[in-house]
Amino acid sequence: xxxxxxxxxxxxxxxxxxAGTSPNLSTPQMQTPSLGGGLGARAVASPSPGAVAEAALxxxxxxxxxxxxxxxxxxxxxxxxxxxxxxxxxVDLLWIVPADAKLDEWSVETRSAGSTGSWKKITGKLSAKxxxxxxIKPEIVxxxxxxxxxxxxxxxxxxxxxxxxxxxxxxxxxxxxxEPQRFVVFGDCGQNTEGQKKVAAQTLxxxxxxxxxxxxxxxxxxxxxxxxxxxxxxxxxxTATESGVPLLRSTLTVAAPGNHDIRSTTLExxxxxxxxxxxxxxxxxxxxxxxxxxxxxxxxxxxxxFLTAAGERYPRMxxxxxxxxxxxxxxLDANYYMDWTDPALLQWVESDLKAAQKSTxxxxxxxxxxxxxxxxxxxxxxxxxxxxLFEKYGVSVVxxxxxHDYQRTYxxxxxxxxxxxxxxxxxxxxxxxxxxxxxxNTKPTAPIYIVTGAGGAGLYxxxxxxxxxxxxxxxIDDTHSLTIVDLTDKKLVARQVAADGKExxxxxxxx
Length: 511
Prior knowledge:
25 strands
C-alpha cells in the first residue's frame, strides 16, 4: 500500500492528523458509538449532540516544535490520583529532555478546548526526575500536574520554553461517574511490528477516553532503549503515518507491568532495565511491600542510581487501583515472585474490592491469565487463587495479556483445591455459566476472563484444532487485535477488532 493510500484508509476510519494536520495537534476526541448489528457490522449510529458540538470546536492553533526540544515529546498519565474528583480533575503531563535542561525555563498552560480566552498557567510546580542509570544517556523526565480540569471535558494544553510555545495538544479530562465512556485494552505490544503499528492506528481511530495496556509494554526486557525503539515512535509520533500515531499526547494511558517489563532481566545484565519505573506515573496506593519481598528482583548490582531515579515508584507502582467514571480498576503485579495468597497481599485486594462496591463496574487487570487455552504459558495459573474474591465482590471482567492472542471465557467460578504447583498450575473446581451468550442472555452469573494479548508482539498459534479448554467461549490467534469497550451505567458492550478493522467478537453485559 502506498503512503497516500494508507492515509486515505485512516481518514475513512476517522483518524485525526492523517491529512495535512500540523504537528503536535489532536482533533477533539469525539465519542464514536459502537458498531451495531453483529460481527462484521460497519454502520455507525448517529453521534450524540455533545459529540457533535465537540467536533465543531475550532482546531487548536499550530505550534512549531524546534528540533531537539524534547528527547521524547509530551504524554499524559494518571499520576498519583486513584480517586475521581467530584468537581475538578487532574492529570500528569510528562516529557523527557536532555540532562542539561533548565527546569525554570519551562512552563505549562491550559484552557477549555476551543476557547478564545487567554491561556492559564498551571499553579502546580513542575518536577524533574533525573535518569542516568547504566547505559542510559542522562536525561530528565519532567512532570507537570494539570489540575482544575472539568471532568469529562476537552481541554487544550500548551508547553513553553523560555516563554516561547513549543508544543500544544488537545485532550480530555477523566470522565465523571455519570458519563458514558469508551476505553481500549490490549497488551504484549511494544515489539516494533507491523501488527503493533496497525493496532495503534485502530486505537487512535476508536477515539477512546483512555487506553489500558495489560503488560509487556516493550520487548524483550523492559529497557529504556526499547522504549526508544518500540514504544515512543509508534504511540507518540508527530503525525499519523504507517509507522506511528500521535496517541499518547492526547489520550490517557494506564498499564499493568508484565514479565517483560519488570521480571526478564537484572541490572547486572541490562543496566537500562526496569524502565517502567522511570517513565510511568501511576497511583501509589498499592500494598506496601519491602524491596526484597514481593517486588521485582533487581539483581546484585549496585542499585543506588536506579533507586534514586525510580524513587517511590519502585516497587509500589507495580500494583495499584484507580477509578474512571463509574468503574473501579484493581491492577496487580502478576509476576511469579508475587504470592497473592500471602495474608497481607490478600487483605489489600479484598479491602480494595470491598471499598469499590459503590462503583457500578469493577474490573481487575494483570498480565498473566488465570484461564488460558493456549499451550504457551498454560501453567502460569497462579492468579487463579484470587478468583473467589473476584466472585465475592462482583467483578465483571478480569483483563489479562501474556498469551499473544484473544480469548474470552464463559462466566466462570473457580474454587482452588490445592496451592500453586511447582509448574505454576493451580488445581480446583471450575463452574461455568454457559447460558450466557453476550447477545440474548447478557447477565453473567460470574466474572468473565479476557486475554487480550495480541497488541503487536508475535502471535501464539500453539493450539491443536478442537483442543480448546471447556471454559473458553471464543478463541482467536491468527491476527493482532484490540478490545474496544463502551460503558454506561447499565451496559457494557465489548468488541474485539482486528488490526485491519474487522470485528472478531462482540459481547454485552447488562446490569
